[in-house]
Amino acid sequence: MGRPQKKSDRDKPWMQRSQKRRVGNRQPRVRILLVCEDTKSSVYYFKRIQELLPSGVVFLCPRGTGRNTQSLINDVENVRQREERVIGTRFDQVWVLFDKDSFSDAQFDNAIRSGEAKGYRVAWSNECFELWYLLHFQEQSSSVGREKIYGGLEAHLGVNHYGKLKGEAGKSIHQRMAEDAEGRKHAIRRARKLDKEARGAFHGRNPVTKVYQLFEVLDSWITGN
Question: Model's pTM, two decimal places?
Fold first, then answer.
């Protein structure tokens, strides 16, 4: 057995370095509220992500497709206060997830600016959330619409009519995407590159998805690194 540590040595620099090595550099667990405009693809996806994370990291609140982007932003504070009363503590981060979809350019841009002004982290996608899926498989540097994204996913996933698989019928696909840790590494890298190179108003930045920024926070908890 080694010699017992002297009390007088505990504050010495070499002991502090040793303790830091044992503890490691992993960040403390965060508590995240994720408010989604979607009720389909992204919800099934993030429900599976929740299951892969330690309990209490992500609290997922789908708000339904009947809202436009700005009304979603306006509702976030009510959701936050309600959920904090339930869990008895404050969230460290509040994220809002929505897509360009059919919303007007002004609605989309104003919602992003409004959300950021309120201190929320806005994980927006242009044109749709499925761009995040597509980036698991391939680069996508040119502007792309929903139908072309769906077509790309059909080829990569070996399915037909992806548009019909956004809900319950495609639940296994969204779970599969959530479990694709290797593909997610590529998606983070590709999405970060697209974001860095994008210019101009938010509505004109296609293709861009900010979902990668959320996984820069979450991925170490999923992988255990």
Answer: 0.86
